[in-house]
Structure formats: structure tokens, C-alpha cells
Specification:
A: about 300 residues, 13 helices, B: about 220 residues, mainly alpha
């Protein structure tokens, strides 16, 4: 089956822009509207790529290289993502650290390019992004620690293929806690509603959108595309944890995992529709709570380990 | 089996960040119900009368009677929430995480008789520590009595975690003690409220003095 696993990053590159479309469709359904087409992001990307870029006089080289770099980091991170029983195209022991740091590198460039525009609003967004992501990261790392203890493997592919039906029977509470923490992490990292509102155009409240205010044309297209890929990565991590199907057959794998990506975005859409955006000062508290969930999972796992 | 200890740990964690008395009472009542179920679930294959009595008395006292008493007290005194705790709600959660880590470390390091469920012991120690922590970090007398209940829940759970056979009489005795204690505390809080105008422990100044204007009513 070697070689076939390159199919998954390829599918992600093609299908990722559908995820925000599905989320918007679900939100429109809940609001009683028809909503834009699910393929809207493809149209937007095509339109943006045909336009020219406008650069402010205050920006430097950093602002110009940021967008391609962010997309490159996210696309490389995609190669590390396993799919259930099939290992990722690139996998080695400890590759989850590379995944984390690739995403952090992308975030770093996003933040310094926002600071590079010398706009007060973008600086504010950058500061919030850094604060929230620094508080969100522990829950991802703690989740990985628990899964490493559980499966005895330090690679993403080993972890993903090590969680099956038996594990959900024997230690469901621990895995459930990680799944909850990771779902909140997905919402936070992808600037979804309880943390950030992707639709708002009020600079005072938004986080991700405010950092890309000055980007235009192809740069904006690259950033939008990169953020949909990031949603795909976090959704993939969650699915690898939750879905206990470990099939060796490529066709089944495709049939199970790709629709479940859309189920995750359905869940995100439902969460966005039924929840209000949190007050900015309560977000750190919730993030600390989600990290606490990860620590509880780790300690329960440790105590069970010594039993 | 691991579900109940995990739920209890998470609900105790939740107590650290909730300021509404009604919510806290609800969570403590839920803890009482789960703790009452724990001995039943732990010995499903060899049920005996003593275990059923232990379980039922736990459910009735911890899950129903004591929470109702507490609800009556907050209804009579009209207190809704602990607004200004000594340790803020944001700082309480990390403190709780540290206490959980400490109780896990303690449990792993200690020697327990065979058949002890380490997870239940960790949970019990955690609840005891959180009970003590809440007692010193909250300002309202009624919150402190609820903390006492959490502490007592922890002691009860420790007994269940280590063994089931010995402690029936002991547990029932403790339950009676706690009942009397909470009953007295409820009365006390009610009278404190009347006498001192509010039930924050560092605001216990007689009504006459308070009316002279050096302590604002909170």
C-alpha cells in the first residue's frame, strides 16, 4: 500500500476549501437562510488569484513573504497527518513535535506580518492571537502525551493506528476528555465562534481576520487557503482520535475518513449556531479549563498506569 | 468503572471556578449521588445488605437531604454568589490542577492493600484537598460549609476506595455527624445573616457597629 498514502494530502489540498463552505451552509440552515454555495471559497480563491496585490508603504519584505510561507508550512504539516490505519506520507518518531512547530512557524509569520503593517488594529489582533494560542497549545501537547502513554508509540502514525475499539472500551473517559479538549482547540485555533467570530468586521473584537486586513489579492487567497488547510489538519487529528475504524483497505479508508471530515465541520457549524461568542476576557479562563482537562486526562492515565 | 471517578474529579474541578451558590449546591448533590452509587457498582457481583444500606444512606443524605438544607439556607438568607473570594476563580483552577497532581503523586507513592482502586483514592484525596482549599479561599460562610461537605465526600470516597467491608458502622456514624454539622451550620449561617447583615467571614461586625458606617454592606 506504500505510495497510496500520498493520496490523502492530495485530497486535503483539493477538498479543504469545502470545509468552511459546509460550516457556512450549516450556519445558514440554522438561521433559516439559503446561504452561499458550499463552493464559495473556491470562487473567492479564483477571483482573488486573478487580482493584483496592493502593498502599504509601511510594509517590508516580511509582509510580502509571509503569505507563501504560511501556506508552505501548513501544506508540509499536512504531510505528517496520518489517516487511521494508514501511516502518513512522512512519518518518524516524534513527528508530532514537527507538526506543532510547523503550525507555530506559520502563526509566527502571520503575527510578524501583521505587526509589519504598523497598523494599531493588526497589532492588537497579533497580541491576542499569541496570547490565546500560547494558552491553547498545552492541551494539544498534553493530549499527545496521554496518547503516547496509551499506545506506546511516539509517532503520529503509530498513535493513530494504535487507538481502536478496545481502547475506547477500556479507557473511554480519558480519550473522551482529550477529544473534548481537542474540539475546543480546533475551534480556538481556527478562529471559530466561541473564541473568535470569522464573520465579524469589527476590528475591536476579532482576532484572525484583523491580522489579514492588509492582505489583498493572491496573498489573501493564499492565507484563506492556508486557514482552510489548518482546519483540515485539526479535524484530521480529532478524527484519528475519535474514529476507531482501523481498516487496511484504501477504498474503505477514503469512504470513512473523508466524509467524517465533513461531519466535523457539521459539528463546528452546529456549535457556531447554538453558541454565542465568549467575552474576550473569559476566553483565557476557558482555555485554561481546556488545558486542565488535558492535565486531568494525563494524571488519570498515569494513575491507571501504576494500578 | 473509571467513569464515576473521572466525573467526580471534573465536577470538583468545576467547583473551583463557579461562583453561584445554586450551581455549587447542585454539583455537590450530584457528587453525593455518584458517591452513593460507587459502593454498589464496585461490588455488583457480591452484594450484601450492608453495602446496600451504605449506598442508600449515602444517596439520601449526601445527594438529597444535605443539598436541600443548603438550598433552604440560601433561600432564607438571599445570598446568590460569592463575588470576591480570597483566591480568584482564575487562580483557583491552576491551584486545583496542582492539588490533583499532588494527590496523584501521593497515591502512587503510598502502599495500599491489594484491591485498592488507585483512581478512587486519587479522587478521594483530591476532593479532600479541594475541600480544604475552598474552605480557606472563599469568603462566604455558606461556601465554606459546602467546602466542608466536599471534604467529607472525599473522606467517604477514601473509605470506599480502600475497602468496603469494615466501615459500615463508621461511615454511618460519620454521616450522622455530618448531618448534624451541616444542620448546625445552616442554622448558624441564617442567624449570622440576621445578626451581622452579611455572611462574609471577615465582615463579622455587629449590626450596631456596621450601621455606624465603617463597613459597607456587600
Amino acid at each position: 500500500m506504500t505510495g497510496w498514502n500520498w493520496l490523502f494530502p492530495l485530497a486535503a489540498l483539493i477538498l479543504a476549501p469545502l470545509l468552511p463552505g459546509v460550516i457556512n451552509k450549516v450556519k445558514a440552515f440554522f438561521a433559516g437562510r439559503r446561504g452561499p454555495s458550499s463552493f464559495q471559497l473556491y470562487y473567492d480563491l479564483a477571483k482573488l488569484l486573478r487580482k493584483g496585490s496592493v502593498y502599504s508603504h509601511s510594509t517590508t519584505l516580511i509582509f510580502r513573504i509571509a503569505a507563501p510561507l504560511i501556506l508552505a508550512c501548513t501544506a508540509v504539516a499536512l504531510l505528517l497527518l496520518p489517516w487511521g490505519g494508514m501511516s502518513a506520507p512522512v512519518s518518524f518518531a516524534g513527528d508530532f513535535i514537527l507538526l506543532l512547530y510547523l503550525l507555530a512557524l506559520a502563526r509566527f509569520f502571520l503575527v510578524i506580518s501583521a505587526l509589519d503593517t504598523a497598523s494599531a488594529f493588526e497589532g492588537m489582533g497579533a497580541s491576542r492571537e499569541v496570547l490565546f494560542s500560547a494558552m491553547a497549545e498545552p492541551s494539544l501537547m498534553l493530549g499527545f502525551l496521554v496518547l503516547i502513554l496509551h499506545t506506546g508509540s511516539t509517532g503520529l502514525s503509530g498513535i493513530a493506528s494504535g487507538i481502536g475499539f478496545n481502547d475506547w472500551q477500556s479507557s473511554a473517559p480519558v480519550l473522551l476528555m482529550i477529544a473534548m479538549a481537542w474540539f475546543f482547540l480546533l475551534l480556538c485555533e481556527n478562529s471559530r465562534i466561541p473564541v473568535d467570530d470569522p464573520n465579524t468586521h469589527l476590528e475591536l473584537t476579532m482576532i484572525h481576520e484583523v491580522m489579514i486586513l492588509d492582505n489583498s489579492g493572491p496573498d489573501l487567497a493564499l492565507l484563506e487557503y492556508a486557514s482552510s488547510l489548518k482546519l483540515w489538519i485539526f479535524g484530521g487529528l480529532l478524527i484519528n482520535l475519535i474514529l476507531p475504524f482501523r481498516l487496511d483497505n484504501l477504498i474503505y479508508q477514503i469512504l470513512v475518513f473523508i466524509p467524517s471530515m465533513f461531519i466535523v465541520s457539521l459539528l463546528v457549524g452546529i456549535t457556531e449556531s447554538i453558541m454565542a461568542r465568549l467575552k474576550l476576557i473569559t476566553i483565557p479562563k476557558v482555555l485554561v479549563g481546556s488545558a486542565a482537562l488535558g492535565i486531568v486526562a494525563l494524571l488519570v492515565k498515569l494513575v491507571e498506569y501504576y494500578q | 468503572m473509571t467513569f464515576i471517578p473521572v466525573i467526580l474529579i471534573l465536577s470538583t474541578m468545576f467547583l473551583l471556578s463557579s461562583s453561584r451558590l445554586r450551581t455549587v449546591i447542585g454539583v455537590v448533590a450530584m457528587q453525593g449521588l455518584f458517591l452513593g452509587l460507587l459502593p454498589l457498582l464496585k461490588s455488583l457481583d457480591h452484594l450484601s445488605l450492608s453495602i446496600i444500606i451504605l449506598s442508600l444512606s449515602g444517596i439520601i443524605f449526601k445527594g438529597i437531604v444535605l443539598p436541600l438544607l443548603m438550598l433552604k439556607v440560601i433561600k432564607e438568607t438571599g445570598i446568590q454568589r460569592d463575588v470576591r473570594p480570597y483566591v480568584s476563580y482564575g487562580a483557583s483552577l491552576p491551584a486545583g490542577v496542582l492539588l490533583l497532581a499532588f494527590s496523584a503523586w501521593l497515591t502512587i507513592r503510598m502502599d495500599f492493600p491489594a484491591g485498592t482502586s488507585l483512581l478512587i483514592v486519587t479522587m478521594a484525596m483530591f476532593m479532600m484537598f479541594i475541600g480544604l482549599f475552598l474552605m480557606i479561599s472563599r469568603r462566604l460562610a455558606i461556601m465554606q460549609s459546602l467546602a466542608y461537605l466536599v471534604l467529607e465526600n472525599g473522606i467517604y470516597a477514601l473509605g470506599i476506595g480502600i475497602s468496603l467491608e469494615v466501615p459500615l458502622m463508621v461511615e454511618l456514624g460519620i454521616l450522622l455527624d455530618v448531618f448534624v454539622g451541616v444542620f448546625l451550620m445552616g442554622n448558624l449561617v441564617f442567624h449570622l445573616d440576621r445578626e451581622f447583615q452579611h455572611t462574609e467571614v471577615d465582615g463579622f461586625i455587629l449590626s450596631d457597629e456596621a450601621s455606624e458606617g465603617d463597613s459597607p454592606k456587600l
